[in-house]
Amino acid sequence: MILGIISDTHDHLQKISQAIQVFQKEQVGAVIHCGDFVAPFAIKLFQQLPCPFYAVFGNNDGERKGLLNTVSPFGELHNPPHIWTIAGKRIYVAHAPVSEMDIAELSEQPDYIVFGHTHKAEVTKCRGITAINPGEACGWLSHEPSIGLLNLDSGEYRRMMLDA
Prior knowledge:
With 164 residues, this protein is of the alpha/beta class. Helix content is 19%, strand content 30%. The protein has a single domain, classed as 4-Layer Sandwich (Purple Acid Phosphatase, chain A, domain 2). The chain contains four helices and eleven strands, in the order βαβαβαβββαβββββ.
C-alpha cells in the first residue's frame, strides 16, 4: 500500500488540489497530513480523496474547532503526536521534529515517523526508525513545494514535487 504524506499546506488551495491529484493518480491507500492547514476551508478539499485521511494539528492551526468540524465527516484530526496503524504499520505523526527521547518513552516503537513544521524535506533516522518530512506543500518558503509517497510494503519513499 502507498501512503501519501503532506504537510504545511498553509491555505494554498492550488497546491492542495495538485497534491490530491497526485495522490489519486498514485492510488494511495491513505493520506497523512502533518499539520498547518491554517483555516477550515483548506482542510475541506481533502474530502475529495477516495481513501482514509489522517491529520494532526500544526502550530499555525488556530481555528481548531472549525478544522475539527470540517474534517469530522471524512477524516480524523488529533493533537500531535498521534499514532495510527495503517496497513499493519505503526505511523507516529507529529508536526514538529521528533526527539529520540520522545520515541524512547513510547511503550511500543513505531515503524515510521512522519512530521513537518520545518518546511524542509528530509529523510533521517531516529533511534533506527525512518523519519520523513515531506517538505512544505505550499512552497511559500522553499519555493520547492513537495509531498511524499511511502510504500508501506517495501519501505521505498519518493518525494514528489508539485508545480512551482
